User: Which sequence fits this backbone?
């Protein structure tokens, strides 16, 4: 830092580089609105007061506030590459991200992580990549690679990763699995993932060094986790929307222990609603003071992750800020990162250098499937998976017969082992076809769901070696979104991917299914055996609470 | 950290080392009271829940809370060595200190700092010594040594000091004095000292990297400093008592930006009232929620200084805590530091190893003074220093004659230069004698005040080569507190020093003076030319606001 220059500018002896004149500052430190000129010197604020600058921007009627921090997300969820994601999200005011490249790591390992790092290089935002801690999410899974503690350490060190990504293997932590504990040694910052864990097991999980959680489902759960020292990330994803519930846990006293995150957002929501700005708006709709909501979105996350002097408009603090037409940041007019204007009126002012995809394509390796592979005798003794709108939590239920149910299969796709798990699902109500995809948390095997084996087999075989999402109706492929990058992300620009996705949505619209759910997003979580309560993997139906298969097959 | 063991304990599979059973936890993270057993494993909390331990302590009717942090103090002010200070303050619940050995550094330089470090070695508390940044406080002063930027860096590095102590030279910071700026490079943690500074100059001071302030005198000043990114230390010293004013600046929104400190406490207050626990009690008396007050006293300071996972009772957090009979910590029954019981019922359970004093005694070097040296013709054109109860801020006033005033002299005592500054003082109303002392912030020259030159000369000459505080009445030395260590601290045990101090107070009681002031404490600040508005040094009367002498002589 050129200390002399910023002092000269702050003292008013020298012109600032940029001044937002006559504006209203959202003061997240004091909880107030302050009128004045915001002076920027290099990458820092010089101060709020009366200033002139080389560049002066009229801030009349505008709000200047710290830019936002998405405390936990997987870029992969939006199904475009991270550089495309950031071209959309930075202009919406989010300049800091804790990104866990967990999905691509499950398919491509270190090569996938390096692809993500390469893809965002030079983009004006703080992108803190976390080291995926659970690849695969659980030893029962079959993913594209297995990263043990030694791998985790090697990759985190050689890639310079910020922290350890969500430690989903809470039984491994609480049970002192040696490999899991060795992973915890890799970084002091350890994100958590402990849905429904409480009491002494939660104490054990936190005492192990885990400091955040983004899986709270209730006010009670959030309050317990806060009192026990966790930062609670209020998640507003696309499939999992916890904000309206969890915001009730926040009060003026515990406010500093809450952050916002998206975890998983689809491209429609990213483009249509945005991410953290959307959380701010929703929080205010729920009755929160806008300054408090912005504090959660900015200062709190920086504090939680030990990022000094960032997340507020104050002298010497990093000049990451927004100029907005409204106090809830719905109309973000300008985005500054480290003192430089990087986006204006929703458009990025920066260019990106997309990374070479050749190392992360062609990742789907299966033996072609037949309709016979997609059949499974119904047995009323076997539990059925019940799904619900608005959550990825499921239940095991009993059913008398297969009527009204769908069959779902999980096909191992990394090593062409031929392993296929089967179960019946209640709640999709899909009729006359099938959907299939290579996105299936966290091992990203192929998930296919349908009401007849022929359409299901066609759907799977239509995925190709690159993978994607497909819709089959009555024996005909009617929609496909190719996801060349690891079978998870499109290599096309976001606009093209969005158009392709919209076409897919149109195809989906031709299908007969339960309109309260988003089939592809929900399907992608029905193989995730660290989220309660029953999930399907390539071996069979797994109970998370019992941590065992309900049946294999 | 033995991660496996703490997990086993937290999970309840293994006995904790210590459990406080059936107690009430003051939860500063969630802002609530929680009933349960507090389990300790090694130096950390395993959790609050249902636990059994090797040692079990009944916590029924008791409150368990994080121990306290004094965010800024000078041990020297209490006039006993730091090990004696800590034997009193640790049992009162303060286990963390940011101590600036600024006073002894002004007398003895690096040797003095090392004495302080040596004296506290092995004491069970986090004693973070700051590197004195302003020795002398201003270039106009004559102290025992001059520490330039190179010295500051060398000493801070070789002594492993935590941060840069209060940067009092705000004109030097705001004016970009190269040596001052070079000092700011020494440590990222920089404590401030900017009484009354606001607006653009305050922006400049903060932009330079200063992150705290303990000199606020008004709510408005505190709020401006908080909004500009400072942590505001609410000071409740012995002479400067800002709590009742500043506590009004604290609300639920900005609470996290406030800390408590004592800065300067005398031994009577240390023993009688305590320090940070006293601030908690006063804050509650002023209407603050006890949990909020304890949050300021514990969590906030740890956050402000980047001390991770300390300052709350939560799994994996450092087990520095108190067992109290009341929620405002007035009856501290047990003090635990890093999981070990270190004090009980007001008594330390630890021993100390006082450092050798031989290098820091015999520090008073003056030419013997005569009554003639202690005379100064009254000139109505020269301003008079007006002092007030309860503050060390002074004013320059006019007076028609010397009636009702006292003469004060500041005698350089490090190099026997013979320099003596003189001024008249309004507000002491001392009659028939003199007081003199070698404690005089920050250069610790001799300050003497009286109503006749003979008594003043006797007082000065009675200080001896070791220095101390003396009282002379009508030609007779009636009280003396020897302060062998740098002329600032007694080398006697605290109980003896307190007894000697009480004798001195008795001697003082024989004197006729304004009873609303504490003469020795106030006198010790009347030479501090970084506190407004007029102060006396060895050269003459200095205006802090004009940053120049009003006259020399």
Assistant:
């Amino acid at each position: 830092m050129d200390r002399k220059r910023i002092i000269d500018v702050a003292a008013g002896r020298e012109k600032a580089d940029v001044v937002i004149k006559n504006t209203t500052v959202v003061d997240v430190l004091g909880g107030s609105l302050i009128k004045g000129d915001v002076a920027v010197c290099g990458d820092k604020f010089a101060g709020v007061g009366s200033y002139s600058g080389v560049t002066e921007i009229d801030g009349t009627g505008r709000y200047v506030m710290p830019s936002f921090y998405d405390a936990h997300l997987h870029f992969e969820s939006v199904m475009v590459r991270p550089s495309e994601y950031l071209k959309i999200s930075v202009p919406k005011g989010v300049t800091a991200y804790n990104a866990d490249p967990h999905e691509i790591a499950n398919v491509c390992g270190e090569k996938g992580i390096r692809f993500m790092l390469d893809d965002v290089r030079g983009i004006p935002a703080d992108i803190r990549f976390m080291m995926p801690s659970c690849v695969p999410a659980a030893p029962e899974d079959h993913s594209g690679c297995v990263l043990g503690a030694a791998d985790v350490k090697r990759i985190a060190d050689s890639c310079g990763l910020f922290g350890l990504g969500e430690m989903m293997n809470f039984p491994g932590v609480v049970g002192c699995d040696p490999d899991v504990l060795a992973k915890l040694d890799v970084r002091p910052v350890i994100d958590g993932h402990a849905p429904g864990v409480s009491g002494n097991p939660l104490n054990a999980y936190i005492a192990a060094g885990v400091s955040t959680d983004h899986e709270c489902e209730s006010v009670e759960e959030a309050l317990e986790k806060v009192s026990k020292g966790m930062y609670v990330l209020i998640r507003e994803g696309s499939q999992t929307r916890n904000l309206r519930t969890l915001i009730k846990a926040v009060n003026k006293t515990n406010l500093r222990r809450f952050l916002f995150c998206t975890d998983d957002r689809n491209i429609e929501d990213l483009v249509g609603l945005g991410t953290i700005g959307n959380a701010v708006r929703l929080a205010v709709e729920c009755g929160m003071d806008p300054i408090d909501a912005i504090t959660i979105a900015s200062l709190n996350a920086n504090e939680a992750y030990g990022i000094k002097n960032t997340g507020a408009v104050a002298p010497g603090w990093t000049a990451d800020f927004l100029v907005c037409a409204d106090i809830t940041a719905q109309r973000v007019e300008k985005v500054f990162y480290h003192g430089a204007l990087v986006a204006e009126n929703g458009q990025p002012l920066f260019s990106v250098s997309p990374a070479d995809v050749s190392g992360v394509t062609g990742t789907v390796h299966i033996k072609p499937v037949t309709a016979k592979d997609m059949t499974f005798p119904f047995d009323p003794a076997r539990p059925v998976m019940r799904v619900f709108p608005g959550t990825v939590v499921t239940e095991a239920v009993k059913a008398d017969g297969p009527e009204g149910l769908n069959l779902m299969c999980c096909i191992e796709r990394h090593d062409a082992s031929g392993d296929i798990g089967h179960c019946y699902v209640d709640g999709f109500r899909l009729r006359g076809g099938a959907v299939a995809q290579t996105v299936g948390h966290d091992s990203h095997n192929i998930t296919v769901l349908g009401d007849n084996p022929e359409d299901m087999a066609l759907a799977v075989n239509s995925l190709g070696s690159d993978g994607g999402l497909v819709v089959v109706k009555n024996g005909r492929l009617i929609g496909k979104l190719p996801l060349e990058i690891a079978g998870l992300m499109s290599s096309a620009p976001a606009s093209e991917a969005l158009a392709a996705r919209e076409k897919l949505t149109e195809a989906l619209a031709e299908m007969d299914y339960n309109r309260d759910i988003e089939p592809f997003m929900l399907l992608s979580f029905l193989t995730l055996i660290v989220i309660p309560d029953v999930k399907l993997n390539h071996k069979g139906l797994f109970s998370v609470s019992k941590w065992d298969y309900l049946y294999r097959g």
The first helix of chain B runs from residue 3 to 11.
